[in-house]
What does this fold into?
Amino acid sequence: MSEPTGTPRHLVLIDGSGFIFRAFHALPPMSRGDGTPVNAVYGFTTMLLKLLADSDADHLAVVFDSSRATFRREIYPAYKAHRPPPPEELVPQFALVREAVAACDVAGIELDGFEADDLIATYARLGREAGARVTVVSSDKDLMQLVGPQVAMLDPIKSRAIDEAAVREKFGVGPERVVDVQALCGDATDNVPGVPGIGIKTAAQLIGEYGDLDSLLARAGEIRQPKRRQTLLDHAEMARLSRELVRLRDDAPPPLPLSGLAVRPLDPARLGAFLTEQGFRSLLGRLERDGATPAPRPAPRPIAPPPDAIHAAAPAAEAAPAVSLPRDGYRLVTDLADLDRWIARATEAGLVGFDTETDSLDAVRANLVGVSLAVAPGEACYIPLRHSAPAEQGSLDLGGGDAAPAAAGPTLPPVDQILDRLRPLLADPSVLKVGHNIKFDMQVLAGLGLNVTPLDDTMLLSYVLDGASHGHGLDELALRHLGHATIPYAAVCGSGRKQITFDRVPLDQARDYAAEDADVTLRLHALLKPRLLAERMSTVYETLERPLVPVIVAMEREGIKVDRAALAALSEDFAQRLTTLEAQVIALNDGEAFNLASPQQLGKVLFERLGLPGGKKTKTGQWATRADILEELAPLHELPARLLDWRQLAKLKSTYSDALVAQINPATGRVHTSFSLAATTTGRLSSSDPNLQNIPIRSEEGRKIRRAFVAEPGHLLVSADYSQIELRLVAHVAGIQALQAAFASGADIHATTAAEIFGVAPDQVDGALRRRAKAINFGIIYGISAFGLAHQLGIPQGEARAYIEAYFRRYPEIPAYMERTKAEAREHGFVRTPLGRKVFTPGIHDKNAAARAFAERAAINGPIQGGAADIIKLAMVRLPAALEQAGLKARLLLQVHDELVLEAPEAEADATCAAVRAVMENAVSLAVPLLVEAKAAASWGEAH
It folds into this structure.
């Protein structure tokens, strides 16, 4: 450490909060003699002392967050609102960490109303202006916007500098445009909304093309992709708000002048007293070895049990003061004898972290490149199967001290021999295979004839425990729970046009990347699995999520056949109709042509040229032309009505009739959608590539698309759909006896409601009354307002309010359920489904009334939608065994909301319908019967 000078030459700013959380999650529990937990304090102090010893800084500070009440929360109350409180064991350590900073004679800085990042930005500016070189010690991506000619970052975990090139590698843009990219893609960790559907790669591409965020938003109407264009136009203000949330303030009032950050020599007596008080004997010993003798103090108090954890912790901290996950236990397996040793260790342990590396994200088409195994924390290996790249320049550590020249690389055993060795391990019932999103790995291996059982999935463990309160990607969970920043994929494979597939990654880099994934997965499993029992979530995981994985793997592998000719004909039909609709719209605009896909041009036509009422401008000064606005205008003029038709048809053509043909797998002739198991708030599955859950059911165009999904020759498609399951769940969870009785008797529930609400005899309920009752029945469970119901039914708002009040008077259990559920959400931050799933309700305490009301509606609906999701998942888990027991050859192909789609031999269609109906109707026992409608036909559209 340099001696202090008047003018700073090198200013080091340490992200204190990042250090604390990394230390806490990286080290096992440790306690002082009085029981106070100190593992974070130990790790933090070790890191700080190491940095002081290694750095040439003459000015240095540790910067802390003061509280969550910052200016960002004032402009956007949801900012970081979803973050859970810190662990109870960490709370008492915050003050002790600040004591550690003082004991090291280092400046500690914090300021109410500002985050640590803002203070770091402010002092970085002051350092630059003073001519100093500035180093920010952190790996936080939010701080990368500060990197520049005088400012660099140091990743304390990887001990590597983060310069402008590293920032560009991560964000695709230079530091000066990081804020613009973050404004577009948002940040789930901090609850920064961004623009829906835009990730870092797309954001970087857009900013690179248009220069900056303001230019992009001003020219959004020029974007060729219709969906992206509309999304940016609709969410321009949210992007601008997000920019204010992610942009760091460098004008915070500095709590200390820059001169107050000058480094001072350690005071051995002061530091020794602190270390003795905490019982940090190993650090005291190091202090003495370095020649500093602390003042006499009472004998160190013994550190409380568990002793095994402490003995393991101290050496780890000494060896890895940066509190990173060490990689010196990672090995590359290049011969069968070594592979056999790792398999034997996994078998003996009975538990193995497991991951695959591939050359594609399409699990059905991907080639397996390698497999990684972790047998204990920090002990993992990578088994390459197909690599065309040698090691990097220098020598390649093959494990055990062997080295091979980089030019040639090791000779790998034949792939079939490696797979033959792995096959028994993967199927061994005595060895639990732990993966992260293990569905993907199982899908890849299934293509090679390998079965993986039994399994645990850390992604699903996290999803069951924490729901939608945060993301469940491996990188995010590693940072959240272990304080560890994993190796980015781009760091080994590159990005953009220069990106390579994993089989071309040098083996030493592939080893560290792949082994780390298995290692992190194993560590996360040890943290997350015990929480299931403690938080009463074992049933959800063990009966719904874990056993569903192999069912989904089989579904995705089966895929579903689509009729190319039917799709081509449909695309041609849609194209002709789009041309006709466009001509009609132009004619309704007195023959003056305009771009139907341009909200800006459309707004001028509707509200300036045609002078339609009710126009609203966005904050950018453009007319709003969302679908709900066009629906309000449709009764007033034919142009918005025809434009709605044009929009829907254009979306169906681009998303389905055109795109589905390109998504047919040439090897199977079928479309293989991918189901996301941890993506929704309520537990529902979602599908992508292609998304088969958004095909309209009630429109004729949607039915035409479904008719293009067909059965193989000699087979039929079976569609089995729960009837009114959400209404049945309302009757169950709210305890509505009248509705329970109506469902039990098989009565028409909407006609029954109409008779009850409108005071007429059941045989006098006509179609109009039934439609109104249906709108109320379904609207109530989504928290519909009098305004919303009036708009939907086309009646005065007062009449709609009277209907809702009459509904509540007749079914008083409903408002009681609503209040009870909102109170539960306010108390716990989540509600539970009948089967116990947590449905989180972020925003339930929001100061903004609209945001709070939205969260309350989500809370009311959570047990309903989440309950329906749980029930159909349970049916899916039980269905394969039931079909096998009945001797039926039907295979499950799709799950779409409350519907299951199977393919069955034509001769077994009726028996399959009966078997599926029996499983689905008896999945759970409710206060009302479940009813399933099942039908078999040659196409999905005809079977529905």
